[in-house]
Each structure stands twice: as structure tokens, then as C-alpha cells.
Amino acid sequence: MAMKTACMSSQASDDEQRKRENIRSLTMSGHVGFESLPDQLVNRSIQQGFFFNILCVGETGIGKSTLIDTLFNTNFQDHESSHFYPHVRLKAQTYELQESNVRLKLTVVSTVGFGDQINKEESYQPIVDYIDAQFEAYLQEELKIKRSLFNYHDSRIHVNIIPVIAKADAISKTELQKFKIKLMSELVSNGIQIYQFPTDDDTIAKINAAMNGHLPFAVVGSMDEVKVGNKMVKARQYPWGVVQVENENHCDFVKLREMLICTNMEDLREQTHTRHYELYRRCKLEEMGFTDMGPESKPL
Ligand code: GDP
Asked: Acetylation among the record's keywords (predicted)?
């Protein structure tokens, strides 16, 4: 019922817009072929490949590299980092991955030295600076007269805030529920806006709405394979039993992977461009003295 109302109201607003723009809706008397436009779009995008950039923030040793390896089922061979860095810095590495005929240029940016200093007040600053520096680089390319955004290595961070509890196998079931509630309420009380899986597309609205209610995801990472029944599965083996990474009764790893990679990767990429970068660009251009108003405050 709710869906029907939403569809009807969007139809009504389409009609209104057409009326405003003086566009007439006509019925064609035969096939001409522009229905293949979406296929053309898909083919071109596949040829170009996709950029996807993840920033993974967390203490040294919390399980960041293991989680990224497990998410992409790839051994990225990241080196173990020490706990003795005086400052937080960011380390970016780009990899080319291919699944079927889709090429993905994946950049993983991880924090180094996060949480290792006694005074952690400034730990967030290099992270914010890094995000802004990528926006700035894109803006500078965009502002060039001869710009080449077509083959530009887009390094803007796509993965907005998705809270994750790492090493979820180290916490009991009841403690985990309490911890999840505490974490979410701390995020809210500190005014931190996390990424909400979008619910405006009917095909994924239901699953995304359910997943929003599961945040933060409690995950376990491991590239080790353990025999369970007659199958080899990714797991962590303990003297008392086996924690299976992809078993939804054991942890939320599958939920995170589905949401991040299968369902919302394009939304993350799009929101980075249309929301976050747009805001950065607007503020920067206004700072530089540009305006959309002409003389006598008339829009240009
Ligand atoms: P990073 O410094 O945050 O990149 O952490 P690593 O991925 O290098 O992991 C540090 C240690 O934690 C390694 O010994 C991992 O095997 C272990 N580890 C990683 N993920 C998990 C997990 O989900 N559960 C447990 N118990 N240990 C983990």
C-alpha cells in the first residue's frame, strides 16, 4: 500500500514537471531503438572500469587488513604495522581486480598508528585532511581548461561512515547487543551522521531498511579455510570450536559484504560525487569569490 502511494505520487510529480517545462508526452507509432540506451551505458562503464575507494579507520591490530582481505577474497599482503608511530598517517594502496568482465580499481586507505598515542585528540585530523585533499585534487582537475576527467584517477573516498565492530568473536552475545546499542547512541549523541543504506529505490528498499537496523555490523575476518561438514569455509578455529566468517548466526560479515559491495557500491560512489564533493566544491568556489549571482543579484 505504501509503495503504491509512493509510485503514484512520483508519477504525479513527473507529470507536474513535464507541465512546467512544457514537455508533451507522445506515443510513438513504431520501434526506433533508443531502448538500447541503458545497454550502451552499461557497456561503456564496463569498458572504462570502476573506481572504488575505501578508507578503513581503526586501531593498529584491530583487524583492518584481515577484514579487507576477507571482503574481497584476496590476499592484499599488507605488512603488519608497529604500535610505535608518534602520529597517525594514512597509507593508500591501489589494486586492480576483475570479476567476470568487470574491472575494479580498488584503493584501500588504512590508518597507521591510530590509537597508539597517549593523547588521541588530534588523531582524526590526518583523516579529515586526507579526505579533503582528494576532493581538492579532483576540484583542481575539474577547474583546468584542458581537463581529463575521463581517465583521471579518482581517489575520492567513497565509503562514508559505516560503523563496524571488529573481532566480534571476542565478545559474548549479550555483551554484543549492549555494545551495539551503546555505540549507536554515542554516535547519535555526538552528532555523527553515519551512512544510511538508501531506501528510495523500491527494489532494495526493504533489505536496506532492515540492514540499517543491524548497524553497527559485528564482523569476523579470516582468510583461513577450515573444514566444516564436507565444505571448506573461511573461519577462525579455536580449541573450543570454529567461528565461520560467512555464517550469519556467527557474525554480520555477509551483511557488510552484501551492503558494501553488492547492493550499495554505486550509491556510495554517487553520493560521494553528488553530495559530499558537491558541498566541498561549493564551499571552495564561494571561498574563491565565485557566485551564481550576477549584477543586481540576478541569477546568472
Ligand atoms: P590491522 O593492524 O588493523 O590491519 O590488523 P590485522 O588485520 O593485521 O590483524 C591483527 C591481528 O588480529 C592478526 O593476528 C589477525 O589474525 C587478528 N584478527 C583479525 N581479524 C580478527 C577477528 O575477526 N577475530 C580475531 N579474534 N582476531 C582477528
From this structure: no
What gap in Å lies between CA 65 and CA 78, rounded to an integer?
7
Ligand 1 mean position to 106 CA, how many Å? 21
One-letter amino acid of 124? Y
What is the CA(86)–ligand 1 centre distance, in A? 22
Distance from the alpha carbon of residue 80 to the mean position of ligand 1, in angstroms: 10
- Say yes or no: CB of residue 103 within 6 Å of ligand 1: no
- The 10s digit of each residue's pLDDT in 43-88 is 988 988 999 999 999 999 999 999 999 999 999 987 777 788 888 8
Question: Residues with Cβ < 8 Å from 300, sequence gap 6 or more?
Answer: 292, 293, 294
Quick count: other Cβ atoms within 10 Å of Cβ 123?
Answer: 18
Ligand 1 pocket, 61 CB below 6 A? yes
165 within ligand 1 shell (Cβ under 6 A): no
Quickly state the pLDDT bin for 25 (edges 50, 70, 90).
confident
pTM: 0.88
